[in-house]
Amino acid sequence: MKPFEIVAHRGIATEAPENTLEAFERAVQLGADAVELDVRLTSDFIPVVYHYFYLHENTSASGAIYDYSLQQLRQVQVFSPHNATSSGAISTLSEVIGALGGRIGLEIEIKGPEPEAPQLIGDVLNRFKPLWGMIEVTSYEPALLLAFQAQCPEIPVDLLVPRSEAWMGLDVVYYQALHRARLSRARAVHLHPTQLSAAGVTVLRHHGIEVHMWDANTESFLAMAVEYGIPRVCTDCFQPALAFRDGIITAE
Fold it and tell me: Which structural domain range is residue 78 located in?
């Protein structure tokens, strides 16, 4: 039995451009349980898979992605800062689900902030109902999660929690996480390892809210996931995380 599931953050971004089909396919090949991907809207309101507001320096264009139509984005190449021989394209959410659906879990983040985003993403996912059991939707915004649930009520939603501000104690972190999760009707909250404690995890679970970990990029953080019984971790360092997990399974 796996001590935790491993989510490849934006695919295997160390080998192919992040959030591209190439990075996601590599995650399938290496045995990830799921991939995390980010969804933004084009100027013609098509959900596409891309993280940033601005086209990154590792692309062949510049400017805000919301100013580009899908047809214009089709001309944009995305390059890998880690692999000079690797390039890819910006895909629509529908294309990514069509290519990966049923082969690997999908953790889909609604970036927003457009009020139309949940319905447009829901329209796409409603075309893939047989795959819903392998999909979860996340966001930092409770309103976007609530609106999405009206479109696809059977897909679980999780609330993303940003890194804590310097003044915050863990009591405030957990208080906010709990009540924002209640606002979102979220199944789980995704916390950074620096926000985790045994007491806090216990409190959230007492209220029926599970805890997942993001930025699980070191062995000490992965060990923390095991200690607290975290069922799912999201990492930028997939292969070391897999080796760590395999070591635990072998030891057992």
Answer: 5-251
